[in-house]
Specification:
The structure is a single chain. By secondary structure, the chain is an alpha+beta fold. About 35% of the residues lie in helices and about 15% in strands. The chain has helices spanning about 15, 75-85, 90-100, 120-125, 135-150, 155-165, 165-170, 180-190, and strands spanning about 5-10, 25-30, 35-40, 55, 60, 205-210, 215-220, 230-235. Helix 3 (about 90-100) crosses helix 8 (about 180-190), helix 5 (about 135-150) packs across helix 6 (about 155-165) and helix 6 (about 155-165) packs across helix 8. It is globular.
């Protein structure tokens, strides 16, 4: 029988929460002799030597090195959704980092998809036609997160509901469910993001217009522009 062939390694946020050793965070997908996909946490089981690289700012690892601007690649989309839905950009960034390690093609064994790991039903509910499109995924994920923040009025409970579902939070009397995965998820996101209500620069979003290919397009940042006109779109 032909040894399985390594295709790629990816990290799945809910599997790596609380894992101390980044190497253990890698999940490898191999293809066996029959052409079936096989998932394993051991590169050796794929029958080929594997070199992995750390993803900056997280416990995730990948078979390809991450670019230096990996975690800021989608910052304009984060800022736009933060302004549209009145959600802290630092919180959005933290959720993306923990959920997918900024991999727009991430898919969990449970079927969660894209940067913010939207389940199919959630994607449909919030009008996301292509969950692997970063703009759609972030917009839908932030819209969903906003409904949870409004529902519970508490960031900790909103994050717990984002991970385990609102029914689980309600089942335990509006408290974080006693699930290890959910508790670690909430801790991980909150350890990455700035505290809610803080006066960090992330509380203000500045909108500027820049010329790209002959057209003006909006750019969002939590750093005040040093020159030129700008608009404050969120506090």
């Amino acid at each position: 029988m032909t040894s399985p062939r390594l295709l790629y390694a990816c990290a799945i946020g809910w599997l790596v929460a609380g894992v101390a050793n980044p190497v253990e965070a890698a999940i490898y997908k191999c293809v066996d002799a029959s052409g079936s996909a096989v998932f394993t946490d051991s590169a050796a089981k794929c029958g080929a030597p594997v070199k992995t690289y750390a993803v900056p700012g997280s416990n995730y690892r990948s078979t390809t090195p991450a670019a230096p601007d990996f975690s800021t690649k989608y910052d304009d989309l984060v800022m736009q959704s933060a302004a549209d839905y009145d959600v802290r950009p630092d919180l959005i960034r933290a959720v993306i980092q923990v959920e997918s390690g900024y991999n727009p093609r991430a898919r969990s064994p449970k079927g969660a998809m894209g940067l913010m790991q939207l389940m199919p039903a959630t994607a449909v509910e919030f009008g996301v036609r292509n969950p692997y499109n970063p703009a759609e995924n972030i917009r839908g994920g932030v819209a969903y997160l906003k409904t949870l923040l409004d529902r519970y009025g508490d960031e900790t409970l909103a994050l717990a509901a984002y991970n385990a579902g609102p029914n689980a939070v309600d089942k335990y009397g509006s408290a974080v469910p006693p699930y290890r995965e959910t508790q670690q998820y909430v801790d991980k996101v909150q350890n990455i993001s700035a505290p809610a209500g803080s006066t960090t620069p992330g509380r203000v979003i500045y909108k500027t217009m820049v010329m790209v290919d002959g057209q003006f397009v909006p750019r969002y940042s939590d750093t005040k522009p040093s020159s030129g006109p700008y608009e404050v779109v969120h506090r």
